Amino acid sequence: MESLDIQRSSSGFYSEADVSLKKRVRRIVVTGIGLIMFQQLCGANMMIFRAEEVFDGLNPVDDAPVRAPIYAIVLSATQVSMAFSRPMPSPPEYGIYTRYRNTWLIVSTRAQVLLCSISVELVEILGRKFMLITSGVGMSLCLLALIVHYALHTKDCFEFSEPDWHKYIPVILVALYTCSYSIGWGSVVILVYTEIIYFDKWFSSLIYACGQFVMFLLVYTFFNTNILRGNTYALWMYTATCIVSVAFVWCCVPETRALRLNRIQATFDDERKRYDRSTQQAKVEE
C-alpha cells in the first residue's frame, strides 16, 4: 500500500493540483457555511419579525404613535419620516390600528425590495466584500447604539414631557439596522453563495438547509432567552455575531467582482475535471 502511494506521488496522482483542489473545496465549504450561518445569526429575522417583543422586553413604550409603526418601520429606514406624517389611532381602535399597520407594512416592504435591488446593482461597482463588511459594521453600530440607549434611558427615565424625541431613537436605530442588513447580508449573501458554491448542487442545498435550520432554532429559542436573561442578552449576542461576521468576510470570503459567473464556474469545472481524471487513472493502475 505504501509502495502504491509512493508510485502515485511520483507519477503525479497525488500532485500539488490534487492537494490544492482539496484545500480549495474545504475553503469553499467553510465559506458557504459561514455565509449562511452569519446571515441568520446576525439577528435580522428576530429584529424584523419580533420587533414588538424586542422593544417590550427592554423598555416598554406605551404610546400608540411609537408602537404602531414598529411593525413597518423596522423593515425600511426610508419610511421613518412617512410613518409619523399622520397621527396614529389609539390602541382601543384595534381595527383602524391594524389597517394602519398593514398599510405601512406593505409600503415599507416594497421599499426594502427596492433597497435590495439597488444594492445588487452597486455590488458590481463596490465589490462583494465591501458591501458585506459595510453591512456588518452598520448592523454592529446600530445594535451597540440601541444597547447604550436603553442602558442610559431606563424604564423610569422614559417619562418625558417635552421634548419626547427620545422615544423614537430605538425605532430609528432598528430601521437603520434593517437598512444595513438589506444592503449586504440580506441580498449579497445569496449572490456570493451561488458564485462560489457551484461544484456540487446537492451539497449546496444541504448547506443552505442547515442555515434554515439555524433560523428555526433562533425563532424557537427567542422567547426562552427572553425569559431567562432578557432581550439585552439577545442583542449582545447579535452584536457580537455582526462583529465576528466582519472579520470572517475580511479573512475568508473571496472577492468575485469583475469575474463573470461562467468564468468562475469554468474554473471550478476545470479543476474538478483534472481531479476526476487523476482519480480514474489511479484506479486503473490499482
From TrEMBL:
<keyword id="KW-0812">Transmembrane</keyword>
<protein>
    <submittedName>
        <fullName>Facilitated trehalose transporter Tret1-2</fullName>
    </submittedName>
</protein>
<dbReference type="GO" id="GO:0022857">
    <property type="term" value="F:transmembrane transporter activity"/>
</dbReference>
<feature type="transmembrane region" description="Helical">
    <location>
        <begin position="130"/>
        <end position="152"/>
    </location>
</feature>
<feature type="transmembrane region" description="Helical">
    <location>
        <begin position="205"/>
        <end position="223"/>
    </location>
</feature>
<dbReference type="Pfam" id="PF00083">
    <property type="entry name" value="Sugar_tr"/>
</dbReference>
<dbReference type="InterPro" id="IPR005828">
    <property type="entry name" value="MFS_sugar_transport-like"/>
</dbReference>
<dbReference type="InterPro" id="IPR050549">
    <property type="entry name" value="MFS_Trehalose_Transporter"/>
</dbReference>
<keyword id="KW-1133">Transmembrane helix</keyword>
<feature type="transmembrane region" description="Helical">
    <location>
        <begin position="235"/>
        <end position="253"/>
    </location>
</feature>
<dbReference type="GO" id="GO:0016020">
    <property type="term" value="C:membrane"/>
</dbReference>
<keyword id="KW-0472">Membrane</keyword>
<dbReference type="InterPro" id="IPR036259">
    <property type="entry name" value="MFS_trans_sf"/>
</dbReference>
<feature type="transmembrane region" description="Helical">
    <location>
        <begin position="172"/>
        <end position="193"/>
    </location>
</feature>
